[in-house]
Amino acid sequence: MIWQQRIERLACQLRQHSPLPARLVCNGQSIDFGLFEQPLVTMHIRKAAGLRYLLSPRLDHLGEAYVRGLVDIDGKLDDIIEMAHALARRGKPYPLQRLAGLLFQHNRRADRQAIQYHYDVSNHFYAQWLDPEMVYSCAYFSEGDETLAAAQIKKIDHILTKVRLQSGHTLLDIGCGWGALVIRAARQFGARCLGITLSQQQFEEATRRVKQAGVQDRVEIRLMDYRDVSGSFDRITSVGMFEHVGIKGLADYFRQIVNLLSPDGLVLNHGITSVSTRQRDAPFGAGNFIDKYVFPGGQLPHIGTTLSTMQQGGLEVLDVENLRRHYALTLSLWSQNYEKNSSSIRQEIGEERYRIWRIYLAGCAYAFCNDVVSIYQILCQPAGRPADTLAWSRQYMYE
Q: Does the annotation mark 364 as catalytic?
């Protein structure tokens, strides 16, 4: 009863100062957080322990209460995410940098385990909400009305055109996923490609897809850490990978890329960044939830840090493109696919993991839409090259 009394006091404060169209149902009683005839969101307390999470409504607390089944929520998913952020903004201040992120030690073993935790849910799980090529990164909507499948192909072509990939070039794709980029690079651009991943299931499926596409003579997939790659490559791509490196290791990561890049080579890094200049986490505990349930050890640098560590690593930045709006739409489409296939996904991965990914995808869509996080494509070459190697304009990227 004490918990319920404290919740009633919190609801009273919200009604007076910042009303929300939300309702809490506990033990048959309803508590409204605003003076609205019909709430957009209704939270049902299934277990008394769920009440204490609402008294400190950070995003990680609200998310954990939902994931553990202590709270069920009725309403449109977008309204649920909006309400969670509204409650979190009205809660107590929360330190932005999560402790887990500071303690995580990036090394071959830890990084492999983190990658496998995230990506080895099952290939069929990802296939139920990604596009047919299973591209798990921000799509590129040049017009804004493309299908997800078309926008993912446009993203791959945009990347390969930016790096001026030509027939006969060697290409290394760091974090190759299920192989869509290297397969297209071989089939459409005539490149010879190596794709590497730390995910066992991605490795198996990408290898199968390479054979199915008939490009096994030009594409190789390896289960391999980027630190163990040797050789020289004309072009290097890294899409949705450097978030796993850790901020302290970024300069060394880019040094390794320079070591693998031919003197006249080009590299493109496509990755998520923080909007905080202090390298802080996503606010209100969102980063803590992601670290615990989704992406162990992930860290997001600010774009300024990314650019400076590229320079430290021996790269010259040639072009920077913000794709935040593109990722907001990509995630929204992923979330819609997830909702459409909710019954089969829940059956495959279980209720708890279903809930984790449900709010993760929708929450990330909100974050990119509202400038909580961002994403950039950055084109580079080895530092110190003559100026006459540079393109006069960006026009070639769109031809």
A: yes
